[in-house]
Every structure is written in C-alpha cells, then in structure tokens.
Amino acid sequence: MFKVNPYFSQLQPSYLFAEIARRVRQYEATHPDGAEIISLGIGDVTLTLTPSVTGAMHQATDEMGCADSVRGYCPDGGYTFLTEAIAAHDYQSRNISIHADEVFVSDGAKSDLGNIGDLLSADNRVAVCDPVYPVYIDSNVMGGRAGRWDGTHYANLIYLPCTPENGFAPQLPTEHADIIYLCSPNNPTGTALTYSQLKQWVDYARSEESLIIFDSAYMAYIRQDDIPHSIYEIEGAREVAIEVRSFSKTAGFTGLRCGYTVVPRALTCRAEGGPVSLHSLWSRRQSTKFNGAGYIAQRAALATYTPQGIQETLDSIDYYMSNAAMMRRRLCEAGFTCYGGENAPYLWLRTPDGQSSWSCFDRLLNECRVVVTPGSGFGPNGEGFIRLTAFQKREKIQTAMERIRQLM
Amino acid sequence: MFKVNPYFSQLQPSYLFAEIARRVRQYEATHPDGAEIISLGIGDVTLTLTPSVTGAMHQATDEMGCADSVRGYCPDGGYTFLTEAIAAHDYQSRNISIHADEVFVSDGAKSDLGNIGDLLSADNRVAVCDPVYPVYIDSNVMGGRAGRWDGTHYANLIYLPCTPENGFAPQLPTEHADIIYLCSPNNPTGTALTYSQLKQWVDYARSEESLIIFDSAYMAYIRQDDIPHSIYEIEGAREVAIEVRSFSKTAGFTGLRCGYTVVPRALTCRAEGGPVSLHSLWSRRQSTKFNGAGYIAQRAALATYTPQGIQETLDSIDYYMSNAAMMRRRLCEAGFTCYGGENAPYLWLRTPDGQSSWSCFDRLLNECRVVVTPGSGFGPNGEGFIRLTAFQKREKIQTAMERIRQLM
Questions:
Q1: What pLDDT is stored for residue A348 in this prediction?
Q2: B61 lies in which domain range?
Q3: Judged by CB atoms within 8 Å, which residues 88-127 of A form the interface with B?
Q4: Looking at the complex, does the CB of residue A171 fall below 8 Å from at least one CB of chain B?
C-alpha cells in the first residue's frame, strides 16, 4: 500500500481567507441592499499592468507567433536578458555584488519560498516571526521540520515575537536556529528592518552557521534611507542568505507570474564530504522540477527595467503608498493605534478596546462594510491586531476611511 | 549549523544534454565551414503558437492593461473557464467522468511530476520504466525514495525494462511497488500502451493498493484506436491514478508554460486515521507552494479548445507526425531498426552493428552533421539505442534523412 507524507496531517486548516469570504457572503446575504462592501483584506494589486509592460507582452506574443522568433523551453534559471537586467538594476546599481548567474528566475516568490525546503534536511531547527506569512510555516510542516501542533504552536519551530514592544523587529533567539525566515518590509505588520537590525541577524547567521531565507517581495515600497533594500547590503550576507523577490508587488504581476531568487555562489553548507554549494543544489532542483517562467512573463519583467517601465512602476508604488499614508493619517485621527504603512503597503492596527481580531473584523464588516484581515490569522502574536492593505482604488479607500471615522 | 537535504548527494550528474552540447560545440569549432548542423535531439517544439492562441494572448494582455478587466491572483487550481474546458473537451467528450474541480492547472507537467513527490512518504517503493524520462527518477532521489546509487541503478527503485522483446511495454514487477510512473505515449521510446496493457497496470494498482502517476503529455499524438488517451478510460483508474498533462507538446506551449494534473476525488490512501484524499493533499500543496499559472497562459490554453484552436492544434500535430512517418520510412530504408513514431513524436532506433549510443551519436554528428540523443542517457536499457525527435522543420528533416541515407 502506498503511503502519503505523514507531515500533512499536522497542517492546520488554512481557513483564514476562506473564513473571511464565508463571513462576507453571509453578511451580503442578510444585507442585500446596503452600500458597496470595500475590501482592504487580500494583498493583491488593483492597478493594471503598465503600458511598457503590456507593450512588451504584445511584442513577445507576436514573436511567439512568428517562425523566425518563436521560443521554446527557456534556459535553466531564466533568460540572460532578464537575469542580467536584475543583477544590474537591483544589485550592481546599489553596489551589491550579485552576478546574473546567481539569479534564478521563477514563476513567483511563493513557489520559491515553498520549494526552497527541498534543499534542506528535516532535522533543521527553523525560526519564524510571529505574526508571519503562513507559507513559511506550512511549507516547513510539509517538509517535516515543524513538529507536532500543540494547539497554538508547532513544537519544533522557534517563534520570534514581533510586537509593538520590540518595534516588530524580531530579537535573536536564545536557542540555536538553523534556518531563519525574515521578511522585510514585512507582511503582515507593514514594518521594515533597519540596517542595524538586519545586520544583527546576518552576524548571528555567520556565527551560528545558519541560513537566512530573506523575503524582500515588498522591497520597492521602502522610503526610509536606513532600510536596506537587499540583505546583501549587509557585509557577509552572501555567505549566509538566500533572497527571494517578486515582480508581483513591484510591478503588479500577481496575475502574470514572475519572480526570482538569488542564491550566491559563496553560500555553502558545511557537510561531511566537504562544503556543499546551495547554488548547485537550487540549480539542480529547478532544472529537475521546473521548466522556467514563460517567455511573455520574462519579457514583461524586462520591460520594468526600461526608463519608461521604471517610471511607471514608481508611479504605481507612489499611488499605493499615498493610499497607505492617507489611511494611516485617517485611522490615527479616528483613534486607532497604527503601525506600518510607511515602507510597506500594509497597515497593522491594534484593535480598539482590547477586541479580538475577529470581533474587530466583524464590527468593521457589519458597521462599515469594510473587509480587513484578522491579525490572529498570522499567528498568536497577531491576536488583537488587524491588517489593512493599501492595494485598493483611492476612492474606495477614502469611502472606507470615512465610514470607519464615523464609527469611532 | 544548518543541514542540506542529504539525498541530493546521491543524484548523478545530469550531463546528457550538456554533454551533447559540448560535443556539438567541439565539432563546430573544428569544422567551422561545413553544412548546417541539424538537431533532432531535444524534444522541443519548433512550430509557432497558432493564431487563435496568440489572438487570445493579445486579448488577455489588453485585459491586464485595463482597469475594468485586470486580473490578480488566480483562483487555486486555475480559472474555472479553463478547468471546465479541460474537463469537457479532454474527458467528458470521451465519456470519462472527470469533474472540473478534479483538474489542477499549473505551469507545466514537469513541475507537477516533480512536485507530486511532496505528497508521498520517503518509504514508498517506486517503480520506473527503463529507459525513462529522468525527472521521475531524480525527483524521487531528492525525496529520499531512490536509495543509494550503485553505479548503474538506485538500490531502492524498481526498474521495469522496456525493450524490443516486450514491445517496450513494461511488465508487472515480481516485487510490490507502491508508486508506479507510466508514460504513454512514451518518452523516449515513442511507443504507447494499448488498452489491455494499461488495464494490467490499473488492475495491479487496485489489487496492490499502489498509486500510478500517469504522464500523458504526448496524448495528442495517438493515432491508433486501441490506445487510451487517458488512464481514466480504464475502469477503476479514478481510484488509483493521477494523470499529468501539458499544453507544451499538444499546442506548442513549451515557452508559454501551462499544464494540468488530474487528481480524482475517489483517489485515497489508506492511512491509520482513515482514508486520506490525495485531492485534498495536492490542493493544499498547490495553494501553499504555488500561486497559479499566469492569466495569459490560461487564456491561451482555453483558445486551444475553440473550433479554430482545435483545428490548428490538429494541423500542428499532423505536421510533426508526418515528419515522424517520413523519418521512420527513410530510416527503415536506410537499414535502421526503428521503433515508435507512430503514436508519438519520437523515434527510437537501434544503433547499427552493436554500436554504443554515444558512438552512434558521434558518427551521426561527424559524418552527417545530425544531432540525436543517445539512448543510454535515459537508462541502462537505452544503451544501444538513439532517440530522434520529429519536432523539427520538414526541410531540415529531409536533409538530415538524406545525409543519413548516404552514410549507411
């Protein structure tokens, strides 16, 4: 009899967005005639792909329909036109030494963040922030690195609380961590690690011989000077960190699918038979279990690095960040304690009067017809918070803020 | 110190296509003035995407550039417009009961064939054909199911020889297999399993409680009536088989990326706590580690099911299959013993005079300037064979056949 992966049975139901959808449907059914329900819940972009991107897609589509220019399988790791643009624009222009052949193009950050576990043995101790993007945890549960669920936590994970008290910057653990997931700017808290905060972690990883998996999908939203855009701005990070990025939140590619992961050649694991190159392992994993991002998506990604593409991307991000600034101002005026939203498209709000996350969710749905994400869905330390996204149309956000102001 | 997956060290170097490329480069460098080198090696399509497909891509691109129609993250498992078209056209039209919600759209068959291992525990006994598409083996090595490499085989795999003697139809193993990979029409042998041959395997899996992973990426090339297009044409297969398919070889999507995997709801694994649904596990795996195929690719895939799209696809496949028929005729005339090419775009040739696969490769490169794939790269039973692909322009194939005729 064949046997399934036993660790799946330890996964907790992934009910957060399903439960949100269920409560919204129920509310709609019982309140069919009210004003529009406005979602500030799911972190999905709402602006269109920009003209330079769609122009590149039309051109690439024409190429695929023409015998002289049709493209089949893409080279392992992505087309060099894209890996070289990424290395030049996202790294070398910031004096970070990352070579094009250390960049692996993929169909998105979520795939890479999930699949990277293929490279790691089951007996690593994994540290995650709390609250956290659930993919880090669930993919480690599947990989056998999380241990048993005790009702609130997985036994073998090290949880790093991120709270107002520590400015949402995780503190170094007292026990040894082999693998550390960091996300900055952060989903869900909307906060970002400063240079010195991130340096602590790189230094820790170097001394402990740990691996940092650094998720910088929201890098483009950074506004403050002291916040690194890449972990490789920290000296020595090339030897301890993998960086995962996406065009989804930078250029609105959530429906197009393109991201990339940097695995520096200097990153090795000390093993019995000698040092093992993570670059080689990831290269082999990807060439075995992946056939590359599509040509259209890669051409579209390249277009974001043209002068016009860069400007359009900046404009889109400015739009979302103006939303965030307006939301933060209005919500503070309304009496909320607000975090984030200054270097990220998310705001993290303490619920008023000690309400639970779900109570606050229900109140905002019932009384404001505004949908948010309960912070408790991101981990125990998310309880008592809600997450709001700035990925919405300006007018809708203005309406939502006005409704919330009247409530408070 | 963090630890890498120890099973990667058991992977054998994946040198087949790299070695082919190296020998071709070396030959070119020493013979700079000769006639064009013609590749019948890599199994990548050469015809363009068809007008109905590129038309859909242009339209979808315009939608993504328009505020009223832009799409973000796609629903888990794919857009229903596509899963319903797949269920209707590829299954229900053949009286196969597969529902749209049993279809999971992805970025391609290779990803699914690699990632499906996430669902399986490390102690399953895995059976693979020999010769075989290397992804089945390498992904199981990474997952710890293959055991140690003994120089020619992995200790824990069950190899199913596919030879001229058994008509390249693998025989049931004498020992119990938990997981069985089958590919029909087959890469690399170009042969296909008949209804009765496949039924043997479904019956075996039912009695042994095994799981069949059925790769039917080349389904569209079937010409004979007694060859099933889907494993679900066999009674009871819904309870024991996952089927993986791709638009790559059907509609030339190798550079676009779209495929799908069918996991029937009836497919369960008997486990301690009760039956476990593979559908649930795959759904959870995909929603955790994957964010869907791109909207453009899914619209493009849908276009292959329009009347015009269906006709264009048939025309492309006819073109390749006419190539295959011509190759088979010419190569037989030239004295080769040929297999396959009648229900698949690959021909499998016995090398003349007992030459090794690589000797024959070298001879065809040096004397005909034709590149093929040495059969030994697909497993021990591929030794003494070469694989030729029909995915090439007609004129080039004619030239290649003429050169080979003159050699023999």
A1: 98
A2: 53-306
A3: 107-108, 110-111, 113-115, 118-121, 123-124
A4: no
Q: Is A185 helix (H, G, I), strand (E, B) or coil?
A: coil
Cα A52 versus chain centre, distance:
24
DSSP state, B4? B
- Residues of chain A positioned with their CB less than 8 A from the CB of B297: 294, 296
Give percent of chain A above pLDDT 70.
100
What CATH number has the domain bearing residue A232?
3.40.640.10
The reply to whether B137 and B234 lie within a common domain is yes
Residue A167 Ramachandran class (φ > 0 left, ψ -120 to 50 alpha, else beta): left
- Picking from B306, B337, B354, the residue at the C-terminal end of a domain is B306
Of A80-89, A271-280, A395-404, B177-186, where does mean pLDDT reach its minimum?
A271-280
Q: State what percent of residues in chain B have pLDDT above 90.
A: 94
- Encoding tokens for residue B282? 């795959």
**A21 Cα to chain B: minimum distance (Å):** 13
Is the residue at B262 inside a domain? Answer: yes
- Which token pair is A61? 């589509």
- Which of B48, B61, B113 is closest, CB to CB, to A65? B48
Classify residue B1: in a domain, yes or no: no
B295 in the same domain as B181? yes
If one counts the domains in chain B, the total is: 2
- Read off the tokens for B225: 């009536």
Question: What would the pLDDT profile of A2-46 be if each residue is shown by its tens digit?
Answer: 999 999 999 998 778 889 999 999 999 999 888 899 999 988 999
Same domain, A334 and A202: no
> Within this chain, do residues B300 and B200 fall inside the same structural domain, yes or no?
yes
Tell me the pTM.
0.97
Give the strand order in the sheet containing A157-161. Answer: A103-106, A259-262, A241-246, A211-215, A179-183, A126-130, A157-161
Structure confidence by residue, pLDDT tens digits, A294-317? 999 999 999 999 999 999 999 999
Number of cross-chain residue pairs from A and B with Cβ atoms under 8 Å apart: 257
